[in-house]
Write the structure tokens for this entry.
Amino acid sequence: MGDRQFGLQEAQNARSPTEKLVEKVAKWYTPLVVFGAATMATIPWAFGRDTGMHYFHTALVLLVVACPCALVISTPVTYVCGLAHAAQRGLLVKGGVYLETLGKIQTLCFDKTGTLTVGVFQLTELVSINGSTRDEALKLLLSIELESTHPMASAICLAAREEGATPYEMVEDFENLPGEGVSATVGTVAEREGAVLVGNRRMAERLGWPTGEAAVPAAWTAKAGTIGWLGLNGKCIATFCAMDSVRPEAAEAVTLLHKIGVRTVMLTGDNRASAQSIQHQVGLNDVHYELFPKDKMELVDQEKKGGSRVVAMVGDGVNDAPALAQADLGLAMGVTGTVVAMETADISLMDNDLRKLAQAVLLGRRVQRKILQNVVFSIGSKVCL
């Protein structure tokens, strides 16, 4: 309940540029109208009672006609209606300023895992190398992945347990390696096995581990699987492949965005083959792969500078937080998203239906048009009267 109250307060305090402009105009407009009415209601009395009564009546009419109420409320009322409409459609928007930005989006950047894909992996392949055994590899993977929050970790743990693996008693010094993987020291109470590393191709190449077809069969990359490497005490002892599926509505969502003129880009830390496979299945305009969180942030910034685009970012994980903050508008997956992503983002999709992104953009454009209509009507009515 407290989080919801905080969100409502934040939404009320976030003011858009249009709302600030209207309030700034009203700040000067109102005193001028009051001064003019006061002048008309007082000075003409010096020229006689009839003249004074006539201009006093005119001053009252001026106050009624020139009252800035319609102009001042034209923007916030529209935002309240827009926020309520968005909430009914499963979009939690933190303020009217973000509704206005929604209507200006030209480029939408997507994270891959957990955003365009379901984020539910299945461990499909595992190859032991350098004299290690499958049982040993699964035991090490289970031990370290139990400490991880990556979507692939649960799939690895499930597969390891199904084959009868049990974790080591001791897991110490667990550490996330940004853009690469995780590391920890594992073993038993009596004996330490050593430092275990689990990560992607970038980590494998940095450590000089095998990345050719002997360690990673071509069939794995052809299936757009996510490839991982397992190492013990600096030596690679296994490679594995986990598969994730594209969200069923992702292709339709991207098509809807293209129809309303929004360009789509995917930013992922995954490998090239997997990224290009997702691009082909979904129909994205462009993809960038093998990225660190910092790289995602820099690419969002580049998109913003390219042709003065208004750029939004959609993500669900901790690694997406810098890019969500850097974008003009950040959107988080509300069901599977991390707390960090949801707190950083300006809008949350409460049911993870990507088709609502196009609806959100259209709602933002509708809000912009309605604000313009309200302002024009409020000013026009005063001029006519």
About this structure: The longest strand covers residues 235-243. Residues 16-77+370-384 form one domain. Residues 1-13 have pLDDT under 50 and may be disordered. The chain has three domains: 16-77+370-384, 80-117+246-366, 122-243.
